[in-house]
Amino acid sequence: MSQFEFISKKPEDTMAFSERLGSLLQPGDVLALEGDLGAGKTTFTKGLAKGLNITRNVNSPTFTIIKEYQGRLSLYHMDVYRVEDSFEDLGFDEYFEGNGVTVVEWAHLVKEQLPEELLTIYLYLDDNDSRKLVLEPRGKRYEELCKEIML
Questions:
Q1: What angle do CA 78, 81, 83 make, to 5 degrees?
Q2: pLDDT by residue, tens only, the chain of 151 residues
Q3: Residue 63 DSSP one-character state
Q4: Exposure of 45 in the CB half-sphere (CA atoms within 13 A)
Q5: CB-based contacts of 47: which residues, under 8 Å, 6+ apart?
Q6: What's the predicted TM-score (pTM) here?
Q7: How far apart are CA 109 and CA 85, in angstroms?
């Protein structure tokens, strides 16, 4: 499995990177975000939303689990940190197979429900405001997407 890395020296770098990624996304794309608290998952999603031409403020859906935003494509922003049972029926399939883009924070908690093909992005805290983003594509679509974003 291929991996791609991007070093972000400040939050604006993370936002610019994810905005570019957002501009390349297509209906049905699924992104899994992994990282400790404060690693930048919501900052990443804000940039992604900007790349999808979403003008509404994006924040973490910690207590609502799923927030929806409208732009060039719909963005389904999920935070499954508080999901008690990974097999709880929250209708994830409807989002994954829909006409929007799905972002799942803490995705490993519902890994059994995730589609086989997706893009997992690990955000690691480095020194100060620096972050290391590791992109792990599963499937040809996501492999090509990573190659394009890393140009």
A1: 90
A2: 689 999 999 989 999 999 999 999 999 999 999 988 878 888 999 999 999 999 998 877 666 677 889 999 999 988 877 665 555 555 666 666 678 999 998 888 888 888 999 999 999 988 777 899 999 999 999 999 999 998 7
A3: T
A4: 31
A5: 14, 15, 16, 17, 18, 19, 21, 22
A6: 0.88
A7: 9
